[in-house]
Design brief:
Helix content: 25-40%
Radius of gyration: 16 Å
Structural class: alpha/beta
Distance between the termini: 33 Å
CATH class: Alpha Beta
CATH topology: Rossmann fold
CATH architecture: 3-Layer(aba) Sandwich
Shape: globular
Largest sheet: 8 strands, mixed
CATH superfamily: Vaccinia Virus protein VP39
Order of helices and strands: HHHEHEHEHEHEHEHEE
Number of strands: 8
Length: about 200
């Protein structure tokens, strides 16, 4: 598992390595661009004005929303990725820190029309995911939505099939989303399977 120093070292080549996996349709980033595009369109169609990005990385998605005049807030634990994101979004409210230990107090003092998390929440265990997502729901405006784009599956059986297919490439330090298990905690959860190993989970308020 990469810590913040690992992500700092990966920052310059991150977008390239992700893109290569997506183009080759391989685990874990097959469907990556489609997921980002779908979330981008959904946020615009919802006419969101304030958007929080959890683990914004190099701001591949949020910089596009920023360019549309949306107010961007975010937190990421990589200082190097934050530098890249700041160059793209100089007026965004970005904070450094590991969200596993909690969001910056300034972020908790605000309400959002949309909260997005792309390929970041899989660092949380299954129980941690539930409690963290519930905390995000509490800072959503009424009618707002959480969009989670990540490695995700309809069922545990589908996840295990992917694990067998990926074999040596499977990351045992990451905990992926299983829709039918998470649905028990969030009745208004929906799932759009985008590739064989990833999709978008949406939770409305």
């Amino acid at each position: 598992m990469l810590d913040n120093k690992g992500f700092d070292l990966w920052a310059d080549g991150y977008d390239k390595s992700v893109g290569l996996s997506d183009e080759e349709n391989t685990y874990p980033f097959a469907g990556y661009k489609d997921i980002l595009n779908k979330i981008y369109k959904s946020v615009l169609e919802a006419k969101a004005k304030d958007v929080l990005d959890i683990g914004f990385g190099t701001a591949t998605l949020t910089s596009r929303l920023y360019d549309q005049g949306i107010r961007i807030y975010g937190q990421d634990f990589s200082e190097e990725m934050m530098k890249i994101a700041k160059e793209k979004m100089p007026n965004a409210d970005l904070y450094a820190g590991d969200f596993v230990r909690g969001l910056a107090s300034a972020l908790l003092d605000h309400k959002y029309d949309a909260i997005i998390a792309t390929y970041s929440l899989h660092h949380l265990g299954d129980e941690e995911k539930v409690s963290f997502i519930k905390s995000l729901v509490s800072i959503l405006n009424e009618g707002g939505k959480i969009y989670i784009g990540d490695v995700a599956f309809w069922s545990r059986k589908d996840l295990e099939a992917c694990r067998q297919e990926a074999k040596a490439y499977w990351d045992e330090d990451e905990f992926y989303f299983v829709y039918d298990e998470l649905k028990k905690e969030f009745s208004n959860l929906s799932f759009d399977q985008v590739s064989f190993c990833a999709g978008i989970l949406t939770i409305g308020k």
